[in-house]
């Protein structure tokens, strides 16, 4: 077995590999850029080697820099993680020349299946159904428009070397094809050092289901079930689960056998994933093969009990698989939620900054529930603009899908994260969405259910009443504490009342509280009653309560006259007043937001790539105004209505913060 391996990656996946290597008694070497000098993966590894400046194309994906780190550390093998160099055949070849083991597939398999164009041709030759498209490389935007028109809109423009949603655009007409070609090309060059683009038909209403395969160097290959990855936004997976709520055993077996056969046909070894598009009749079509470990691999590990990183290391060491296909059993259900540094209230635009609070739910393993959090950050750490916006992967397991969903709901509610915009509220909202709960999902789920973006969730009335009861009980605890403040004037004793008015989400609840040592009984004006028990104390940002025998987890912040409460995707301002205070509060005017209708504000921290207009120019609705790059993604900002540009405040190369004024209009 290897004595020392180098992880040619960063963040969450580097930490994940280090944990397994440590359990196997293998020493680890981390690499880091200037931006990651104090990163968690650097702290966890036994050694760490600097590989260059912050941009990935000057550090993590520079093969010579990584090879130098290998030589300096004396590592015997390299695990590439995902992204960066994980699917680069030149890197695998360079390691082979160095006499260093690559913990991944052979160079030939990467070349055959890692390139999306070549892999589709091979799949077609092997008799695998593929999505209609043009596998030849597209030279320029006009050729992209011509080919797209021939295939028929909508089409998908994809980077040949792409992954993780980078270098991908959906085009519905000629203009979008023209714009999408250039943006995809730019993103592909920046993220992968390879700007080749191809086009295929975009299949509407599909499910994205992938098969995990594992092959050794002795001709053995197995599949470890499937993963449902249909909850996607901008072609980036957001929530995954295993198994799929859609597949039956027969379809699963056919997909698995086909995936293994395809892997063996190209001499594949190590862990890999064959991705399929599946239609409503369970017809499946080969999409691509990821010749690496997938981001969502934990859900497969949770339902099979197989440590995929360990298996990759053992295969790279020349060991045969000890598992046979008949040994693979799918046990229970697992769900993964990807926590991203992106603001759901700003159309999921990237967010950067310092994590002023980072307290994940406690990881736990029991016979009936598992909570797992794979992460690469820490409280006080910084989310950089240079890399992928992923903060963590929160996973839950339970014997059934409904129990796994409920476990995820509670875990998301208990996840404390402050300092940056993040998608926790959106993840929570999805867990409660009727379509997701029923399993009736496609890759169009987010676009269909949130066509105007995410503006926060509204609690249904029953849960809102429980939150109101909890807020009233917590307010009583705070009031009791305030009565105990020392130094009061004589004859000014503060008494805690029993009658209160709770307002939240536009609703008013008149309540009366009876308290005892075990908790509080909250009586509502309509005669209903809620029993609340908790050990929460004022100042604690997380409240774990029991309401009528069921758990209720709330993130709590103090505001004037009440609390900011976040739960199940809702962000509530809950006021708790005495009856007379409530009468007066209802008369208070609301503060009006500033008028920014004649300004184009930067919606995210980022870099201006291009300005498309000039002062004095008249622009039409939907016309591109400028392009902003953030976290390796290009975002085109468009005019919301007809207007005349009066002033431009930024230019290409300028780095802007959120709400900086890019341009103004007459």
Explain what this protein looks like in three dimensions.
With 666 residues, this protein is α+β, with helices and mostly antiparallel strands. The strands form 9 sheets. A 9-stranded antiparallel β-sheet has the order 14-13-10-11-12-15-23-21-20. Helix 4 (89-98) packs antiparallel against helix 5 and helix 12 packs antiparallel against helix 13 (424-432). The chain is globular and about 85 Å long. The relative contact order is 0.08.
Set out the fold topology.
Blueprint: E1 4-7, H1 11-23, E2 27-33, H2 40-44, E3 47-52, H3 63-73, E4 77-79, H4 89-98, E5 101-102, H5 107-114, H6 116-125, E6 133-134, H7 141-151, E7 155-159, E8 168-171, H8 174-192, E9 197-201, E10 207-215, E11 221-233, E12 236-242, H9 249-265, E13 270-278, E14 284-290, H10 297-304, H11 308-316, E15 333-340, E16 342-343, E17 349-350, E18 353-354, E19 357-359, E20 364-365, E21 370-375, E22 382-383, E23 390-398, H12 401-413, E24 416-418, H13 424-432, H14 434-438, H15 445-449, H16 461-483, E25 499-504, E26 507-516, E27 519-524, E28 529-534, E29 542-547, E30 550-559, E31 562-567, E32 570-577, H17 579-585, E33 599-601, E34 606-611, E35 618-619, E36 624-630, E37 633-638, E38 643-648, E39 655-656, E40 661-665
Parallel strand pairs: 1-2, 1-4, 2-3, 4-5
Antiparallel strand pairs: 6-9, 7-8, 7-9, 10-11, 10-13, 11-12, 12-15, 13-14, 15-23, 16-17, 18-22, 19-24, 20-21, 21-23, 25-26, 25-32, 26-27, 27-28, 28-29, 29-30, 30-31, 31-32, 33-40, 34-36, 34-39, 35-38, 36-37, 38-40
């Amino acid at each position: 077995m290897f004595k020392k391996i180098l992880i040619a990656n960063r963040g969450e996946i580097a930490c994940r590999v280090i944990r397994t290597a440590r359990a196997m008694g293998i020493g680890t070497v981390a690499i880091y850029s200037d931006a990651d000098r104090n990163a968690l993966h650097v702290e966890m590894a036994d050694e760490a080697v600097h590989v260059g400046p912050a941009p990935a194309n000057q550090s993590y994906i520079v093969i010579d820099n990584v090879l130098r780190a290998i030589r300096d550390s004396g590592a015997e093998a390299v695990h590439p993680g995902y992204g960066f160099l994980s699917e680069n055949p030149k890197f695998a070849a360079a390691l082979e020349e160095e006499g260093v083991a690559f913990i991944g597939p052979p160079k030939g398999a990467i070349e055959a299946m890692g390139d999306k164009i070549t892999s589709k041709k091979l799949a077609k030759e092997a008799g695998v159904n593929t999505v209609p498209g043009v596998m030849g490389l597209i030279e320029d935007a006009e050729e992209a428009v011509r080919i797209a028109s021939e295939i028929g809109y909508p089409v998908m423009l994809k980077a040949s070397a792409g992954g993780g949603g980078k270098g991908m655009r959906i085009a519905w007409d000629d203009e979008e094809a023209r714009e999408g070609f250039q943006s995809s090309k730019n993103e592909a060059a920046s993220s992968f050092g390879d700007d080749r683009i191809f086009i295929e038909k975009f299949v509407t209403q599909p499910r994205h289901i992938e098969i995990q395969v594992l092959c050794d160097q002795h001709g053995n290959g197995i599949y470890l079930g499937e993963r449902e990855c249909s909850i996607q936004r901008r072609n980036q997976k957001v929530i995954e689960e295993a198994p799929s709520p859609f597949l039956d055993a027969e379809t699963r077996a056919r997909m698995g056998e086909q995936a293994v056969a395809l892997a063996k046909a190209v001499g594949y070894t190590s862990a890999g994933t064959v991705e399929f598009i599946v239609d409503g009749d369970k017809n499946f079509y080969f999409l691509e093969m990821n010749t690496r470990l997938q981001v969502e691999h934990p859900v497969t590990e949770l339902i099979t009990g197989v440590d995929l990183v360990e298996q990759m290391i053992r295969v790279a060491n020349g060991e045969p698989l000890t598992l046979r296909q008949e040994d693979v059993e799918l046990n229970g259900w697992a769900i993964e939620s990807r926590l991203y540094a992106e603001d759901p209230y700003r159309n999921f635009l990237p967010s950067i900054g310092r994590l002023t609070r980072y307290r994940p739910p406690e990881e736990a393993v029991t016979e009936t529930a598992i909570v797992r959090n794979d992460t690469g950050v820490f409280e006080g750490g910084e989310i950089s603009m240079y890399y992928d916006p992923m903060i963590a992967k929160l996973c839950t397991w339970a014997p059934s899908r409904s129990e796994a969903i409920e476990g995820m709901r509670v875990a998301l509610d208990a996840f404390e994260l402050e300092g940056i915009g993040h998608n926790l509220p959106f993840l929570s909202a999805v867990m409660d969405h009727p379509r997701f709960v029923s399993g009736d999902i496609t890759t169009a789920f987010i676009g269909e259910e949130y066509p105007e973006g995410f503006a926060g969730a509204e609690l249904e009335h029953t849960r809102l009443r429980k939150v109101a009861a909890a807020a009233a009980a917590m307010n009583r605890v705070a009031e009791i504490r305030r009565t105990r403040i020392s130094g009061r004037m004589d004859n000014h004793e503060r008494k805690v009342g029993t009658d209160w008015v709770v307002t939240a989400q536009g609703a008013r609840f008149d309540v009366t509280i009876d308290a005892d040592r075990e908790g509080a009984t909250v009586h509502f004006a309509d005669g209903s009653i809620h029993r609340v028990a908790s050990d929460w104390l004022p100042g604690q940002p997380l409240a774990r309560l029991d309401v009528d025998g069921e758990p209720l987890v709330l993130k709590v912040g103090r505001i004037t006259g009440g609390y900011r409460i976040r739960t199940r995707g809702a962000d509530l301002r809950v006021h708790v007043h005495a009856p007379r205070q409530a009468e007066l509060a209802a008369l208070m005017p609301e503060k009006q937001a500033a008028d920014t209708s004649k300004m184009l504000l930067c919606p995210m921290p980022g870099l201006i790539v291009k300005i498309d207009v000039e002062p004095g120019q008249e622009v039409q609705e939907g016309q591109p105004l400028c392009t902003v790059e953030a976290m390796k993604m290009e975002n085109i900002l468009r005019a919301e209505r007809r207007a005349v540009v009066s002033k431009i405040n930024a230019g290409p190369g300028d780095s802007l913060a959120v709400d900086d004024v890019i341009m103004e209009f007459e």
